[in-house]
Amino acid sequence: MCLPAILFFLVMSYLPMPGLYLAFINYNYSAGIFGSQFVGFDNFKFLVTSGALWKLTTNTILYNLAFILFGNILQIGIAILLNELRKRWFKKVTQSLMFLPFFISFVLVGLIAYNILSYDFGLLNGILKSIGWDPVKTYSNPSIWPFIIVITYLWQSTGYGSIVYFAAIMGLDSEIVEAAEIDGANALQRIRFIVLPWLKPTFIILLLFSLGGILRGNFGLFYNLVGANNTALFDSTDIIETFVFRSLMNNFNFSLGSAVSLYQSVFGFFIVITANWLVKKASPDNTLF
Amino acid sequence: MARQRGTDFSSVAIRLFGYCFIGFFALCCLIPFLLVLGTSFTSEKSITLHGYNLWPREFSAFAYKIVFENPGVIVGSYGVTLGITIAGTILGLFIVAMTGYSLQRPDFPYRNRISFFIYFTTLFQGGVVPFYLIMTQWLHLKDNYLAVLLPGLMSPFLIIMMKSFVTSIPHAITESAKMDGAGDFRIFTRLILPMTTPALATIGLFIALGYWNEWYNAMLFLSPDLKYRPLQLFLYNVVTSADFIKNSSVASNVQPRDMPLESMKMATAVVATGPVILFYPMVQKYFIKGITVGAVKG
């Protein structure tokens, strides 16, 4: 009964793997993969010397670190606060609203961002103008994009993530909490000494998952926010996935794209192994494998 | 000696902060949607003068009129998305459930190896370029709706979620059914599937949501010549290409300069997203239940 799934992953995930051979050739469409010239590490050499690999790596990693750090702080914080609140209707309504952005496509996310940031019609500039400030040219100013992207990410993912943590808090034995209260623990102490330690295993597992993907970018988010060809912003917004996508769709440079993909897979693989190994040392019960 | 719970200073302060902070964040999540909705009902003139607004200064449903004037393309896109979503969700759900069930059966000899075989694909991938070549040159799925349907069928994450849910069903049930002479497939469809409804609902929602919002594979594999493309890609075209709007101005006999460019983008967004948002309150409780069930428990 596993056969359909095995076939699926064989075709969708394993069959493309030998295709990474593309990274070592100078792909020529008419000659085909095996007719193309073998160039060894030349593609990588080009990426390194042009500085592209370095920029893509730092961008991807820094964005992901920001997503992981701010995302988890916000998610855990909201989960804990939700747990402290008493009005059931308030919890229900706010949870629903916070979950809403998770339900929409990245295309709409991009449109919403444009709604707010557009130079001529955007809400942001509307507000700035109405209080007498100068409008800002968001789409040609690379330095503010890290903030925009991180905020959009938080906007979209916090509701979902906080429900995962909230669910974990629900599993906490209420007797422990009550016992602590009888012993005179106040809310801050309760959170600090009971709830936070209780969330640690969940946090570590989620952290491991996200560390494994630290070299994988959120393509839909970046592509729809920044746009396909807004070269002015690439310095601060280009990540590995958007680069690979461009090399595939615009330049047809299949080899360069594959070289970046291979680098990403190999590097990411070692990051997961290392992270898992570190966690195994620190707390052996929380490892992924 | 029960004490009145949480009346000390820090509890009250935290609650107060909680109401303000969560209320504020929830509003931030809602407002952009209102902005899109409001703009879609605003006249183009008012947008050019005052920009986008939450509340239409000058109400106009002209954009919707144009969007629906030539319903052909949008109805076709709806059809494509709906067809792919329904077919993909049913098929994917069935396969995910079957795989999740077999992988947790203690008497299944290769379960660990197959689990790793599936999990490994999250660690190491061939990347977009070889995937693209396999899909187009080897499976010949260029401009085929199957190219959108197939990749979304399942993910290791969903299989693991299903597996951890089925683990809560005692193996004794399978064993006793076996003794009564039921085959594995019969046990799965008659006994296991009905017992896993909450998990099926959640995983089904994940798959369906993925298909409804799908645009990436559609963009990779469906060329612009194709008459009907999935809704999100249709929306993407309306948002990014002025050509698209120019074409529809010809079709609806409106002068290009009179086309409600901005409000049409928003109206299309409302039309493409509406069903999911309306659907959402109904399915939310399953989602939350499913996440709670499938939540990673350390």
UniProtKB/TrEMBL annotation, chain A:
<keyword id="KW-1003">Cell membrane</keyword>
<feature type="transmembrane region" description="Helical">
    <location>
        <begin position="7"/>
        <end position="27"/>
    </location>
</feature>
<feature type="domain" description="ABC transmembrane type-1">
    <location>
        <begin position="57"/>
        <end position="275"/>
    </location>
</feature>
<feature type="transmembrane region" description="Helical">
    <location>
        <begin position="254"/>
        <end position="279"/>
    </location>
</feature>
<feature type="transmembrane region" description="Helical">
    <location>
        <begin position="61"/>
        <end position="85"/>
    </location>
</feature>
<keyword id="KW-0813">Transport</keyword>
<keyword id="KW-1133">Transmembrane helix</keyword>
<dbReference type="GO" id="GO:0055085">
    <property type="term" value="P:transmembrane transport"/>
</dbReference>
<keyword id="KW-0472">Membrane</keyword>
<dbReference type="GO" id="GO:0005886">
    <property type="term" value="C:plasma membrane"/>
</dbReference>
<comment type="similarity">
    <text>Belongs to the binding-protein-dependent transport system permease family.</text>
</comment>
<protein>
    <submittedName>
        <fullName>ABC transporter permease subunit</fullName>
    </submittedName>
</protein>
<dbReference type="InterPro" id="IPR051393">
    <property type="entry name" value="ABC_transporter_permease"/>
</dbReference>
<feature type="transmembrane region" description="Helical">
    <location>
        <begin position="144"/>
        <end position="172"/>
    </location>
</feature>
<dbReference type="Pfam" id="PF00528">
    <property type="entry name" value="BPD_transp_1"/>
</dbReference>
<dbReference type="InterPro" id="IPR000515">
    <property type="entry name" value="MetI-like"/>
</dbReference>
<keyword id="KW-0812">Transmembrane</keyword>
<feature type="transmembrane region" description="Helical">
    <location>
        <begin position="97"/>
        <end position="117"/>
    </location>
</feature>
<dbReference type="InterPro" id="IPR035906">
    <property type="entry name" value="MetI-like_sf"/>
</dbReference>
<feature type="transmembrane region" description="Helical">
    <location>
        <begin position="193"/>
        <end position="215"/>
    </location>
</feature>
